[in-house]
């Protein structure tokens, strides 16, 4: 369910990004709008592989590491979406559609993370104890 909700959110995020500026021509510097679009794409592209990675791993530390990366990228993505609207690059209504899909994803994500079970593996970095 989490992966399917991400696919829906991803589709809406990509539709949102499509209304932003076109990619710069070869050799031309990127505009602010193009950077915003690029950052949205980068953040969105990371989530699905991290869901798959965490789902196919039984080590709590690695599951939590992937979950933290997912959360970070989703937050960054929404900050970029909000910035696009604030700076006049996109319409507020588009942001609301993306925000609703991301909220549905967040609810499923919280439930999914709750299924992770601690194990005896020691986190050498001391983050997920």
Describe the structure.
This protein is mainly alpha-helical. The chain has helices at residues 2-18, 32-55, 60-86, 92-113. It is elongated. The protein starts with a helix and ends in a 16-residue tail after the last helix. The mean pLDDT is 92.
Helical segment tally? 4
What is the mean pLDDT? 92
What profile does the largest beta sheet have?
none
Strand tally: 0
Give the oligomer, counting copies of the same chain as homo and different chains as hetero.
single chain
Strand content: under 5%
The topology string of helices and strands comes to HHHH
Give the class from helix and strand content and strand pairing.
mainly alpha
How far apart are the first and last residues' alpha carbons, in Å? Answer: 27 Å
Low-confidence stretches: none
Helicity level: 55-70%
* Structural Rg: 17 Å
Shape: elongated
Sum up the structure in keywords.
single chain; 4 helices; 129 residues; mainly alpha; 70% helix
């Amino acid at each position: 369910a989490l992966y399917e909700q991400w696919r829906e959110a991803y589709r809406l995020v990509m539709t949102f990004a499509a209304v932003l500026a076109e990619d710069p021509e070869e050799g031309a510097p990127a505009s602010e709008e193009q950077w915003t679009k690029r950052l949205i794409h980068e953040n969105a592209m990371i989530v699905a592989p991290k869901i798959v990675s965490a789902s196919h791993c039984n080590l709590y530390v690695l599951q939590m590491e992937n979950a933290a990366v997912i959360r970070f990228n989703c937050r960054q993505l929404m900050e970029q979406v909000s910035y696009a609207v604030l700076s006049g690059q996109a319409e507020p209504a588009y942001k609301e559609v993306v925000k609703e899909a991301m909220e549905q994803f967040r609810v499923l994500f919280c439930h999914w993370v709750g299924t992770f079970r601690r194990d005896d593996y020691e986190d050498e970095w001391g983050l997920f104890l």
